[in-house]
């Protein structure tokens, strides 16, 4: 397939019909949905007025603009919405993605209960592919294969070229194959989203609470044409967060250099109503997908154990421990500094080759 260049931000407007690409960080604050709902805005309070960080601040549940953008038997409802911040900006939640952009290449199934492609080995999954899935970054490059398990959703670029997005934005849990033709060294950039049932407040129904904070996590392995592992997720990747929620006390968040920290914030499910919950939003930088984007000031990724992410009962992961937990090159789950509260994360890594 020929390379598809996807701009960092696409201008779209929420109206009776949402345009296919949900790819802007902000949408027109004057837009309304088919029912002429007004955009949910922040409830200015003493807490809100005392916030001095760099994020745009929202409060409460967002309006829903797209209902169930992806349907999967036994999967959670995949909604998309918008919410207005105190500074007058309007944000797509859980994130502005290419889920509805039909020009963005879709990854191949490694294991996917939603499509009944319950492959037990990578060889079985690869045998289903005819080569049309391979995205060309460099015409004279080598074919590389990425194996990806994301909780919940990812979009992957190589040197700024879109090479694949997750098949399933929310649940059931799945894993993916992304193949591309490139010359090393090349830079991998991935947009990661922990989807949410309660739009704008980063939470979902779980453990008896309708507003339980969800968690994220990414593990990826890249192999060359000889099946050698040439890259895997670990603490040397860069990771930055762009949406943090739910925040129930703004005094718990802090910033240190480029770090956006929420480790002092409560993550337990102690509310049945998200109206008081805050969200922190930062704009994605221009050209973050490109190889020459300067991520030197970004924090390194934080690593998490399989137990923390909770993959021991997920066949989309456990069927492929020979890849993800390889004895000689064990990939680690990565995210930003808070795998529970940080819902939108960009990770980057430069692969030098074999």
List the helices and strands and how they pair.
Layout (H helix, E strand, L loop, with lengths): L3 E2 L40 H4 L6 E4 L3 E4 L13 E5 L5 E4 L14 E4 L10 H5 L8 E2 L5 E9 L2 E6 L2 E5 L9 E8 L3 E8 L9 E4 L2 E5 L4 E6 L5 E4 L5 E10 L6 E3 L2 E3 L16 E4 L20 E3 L1 H4 L5 H4 L2 H4 L8 E3 L6 E10 L3
Parallel strand pairs: 7-11
Antiparallel strand pairs: 1-10, 2-20, 3-4, 4-5, 6-11, 8-11, 8-15, 9-10, 9-12, 12-23, 13-14, 15-16, 17-20, 17-23, 18-19, 21-22
The helix fraction, in percent, is under 10%
**Which stretches are poorly predicted, pLDDT < 50 over at least 5 residues?**
6-46
Radius of gyration (CA) equals 19 Å
Q: How many DSSP helices?
A: 5
Strand/helix succession: EHEEEEEHEEEEEEEEEEEEEEEHHHEE
Q: Structural class, judged by helices and strands?
A: mainly beta
User: What amount of the residues lies in strands?
Assistant: 25-35%
Oligomerization? single chain
Described by the principal axes of the CA atoms, the overall outline is globular
Number of DSSP-assigned strands? 23
Record the strand order, biggest sheet: 1-10-9-12-23-17-20-2
Describe what is shown at a glance:
By secondary structure, the protein is mainly β. It has five helices and 23 strands. The protein has an eight-stranded antiparallel β-sheet with strand order 1-10-9-12-23-17-20-2, with no helix packed on it. Strands 6, 7, 8, 11, 15 and 16 form a six-stranded mixed β-sheet that branches. It has a three-stranded antiparallel β-sheet with strand order 3-4-5, with no helix packed on it.
């Amino acid at each position: 397939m020929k390379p598809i260049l996807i701009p960092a931000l696409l201008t779209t407007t929420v109206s009776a019909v949402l345009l296919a690409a949900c790819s802007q960080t902000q949408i027109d604050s004057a837009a309304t949905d088919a029912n002429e709902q007004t955009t949910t805005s922040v409830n200015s309070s003493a807490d809100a007025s005392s916030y001095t960080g760099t994020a745009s601040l929202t409060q409460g549940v967002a309006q829903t603009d797209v209902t169930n953008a992806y349907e999967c038997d036994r999967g959670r409802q995949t909604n998309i919405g918008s919410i207005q911040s105190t500074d007058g900006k309007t944000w797509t939640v859980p994130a502005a993605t290419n889920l509805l952009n039909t020009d963005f290449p879709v990854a191949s199934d490694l294991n996917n209960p939603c499509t009944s492609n319950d492959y037990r080995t990578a060889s079985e999954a690869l045998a289903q592919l005819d080569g049309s899935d391979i995205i060309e970054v460099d015409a004279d490059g080598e074919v590389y294969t990425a194996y990806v398990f994301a909780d919940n959703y990812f979009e992957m670029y190589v040197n700024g070229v879109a090479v694949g997005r997750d098949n399933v934005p929310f649940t059931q849990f799945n894993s993916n194959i992304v193949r591309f033709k490139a010359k090393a060294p090349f830079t991998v950039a991935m947009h990661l989203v922990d989807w949410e049932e309660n739009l704008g407040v980063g939470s979902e129904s779980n453990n008896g609470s309708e507003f339980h904070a969800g968690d994220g996590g990414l593990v990826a392995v890249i192999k060359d044409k000889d099946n050698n592992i040439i890259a895997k997720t670990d603490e040397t990747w860069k990771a930055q967060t762009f949406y943090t929620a739910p925040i129930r006390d703004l005094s718990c968040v802090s910033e240190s250099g480029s770090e956006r920290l929420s480790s002092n914030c409560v993550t337990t499910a102690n509310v049945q109503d998200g109206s008081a919950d805050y969200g922190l939003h930062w704009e994605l930088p221009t050209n973050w997908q490109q190889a020459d984007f300067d991520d030197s000031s970004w924090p390194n990724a934080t690593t998490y154990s399989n137990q923390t992410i909770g993959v021991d009962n997920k066949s989309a992961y456990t069927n492929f421990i020979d890849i993800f937990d390889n004895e000689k090159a064990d990939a680690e789950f990565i995210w930003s500094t808070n795998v529970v509260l940080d819902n939108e994360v960009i990770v980057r890594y430069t692969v030098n080759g074999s």
